[in-house]
Amino acid sequence: AFLLDVRLQASDFLHHPEFTWWSKQGPVAAIDKLIVEFCAWRNLRPLKLVLIGPPASGKTFYAAKIAESYRLVHITVGPVVQEALARGKKVKAMVDPEAQESDAEPVDVESLDDRDRQEDFRGGP
């Protein structure tokens, strides 16, 4: 029988103060950094796919199947639009009370247009 007792030690270079570790905790602890670096070096970008077609042509069905197969995020237009409208209503609810409390007078746009047409007015284009 052949036995071999090997004692491995890190090289002196690794103990040098100027040596910087990429991840002292290992690749699992730095997986997010590893993924970003991997994608950057290989010029990989997220896949974005848009399906366009007439109503009831199966866009949503096929989009769900593609997203499931390739592990992509599936976003449908309906919920996105509803969320944007809800945000708009929240902003309007916040702005309306402030606008009603304001003492500012409304601007008469027609009088501004008339003033803009006068010859002695030297406004910008």
UniProtKB/TrEMBL annotation:
Family annotation (InterPro entries): P-loop_NTPase (IPR027417)
SUPFAM superfamilies: P-loop containing nucleoside triphosphate hydrolases (SSF52540)
Region (Disordered): 92-125
Designated name of the protein: Adenylate kinase
Sequence ranges of Acidic residues compositional bias: 98-111
Biased composition (Basic and acidic residues): 112-125
Pfam families from the UniProt entry: AAA_17
Domain of life: Eukaryota
Signal sequence, renumbered to the chain: none
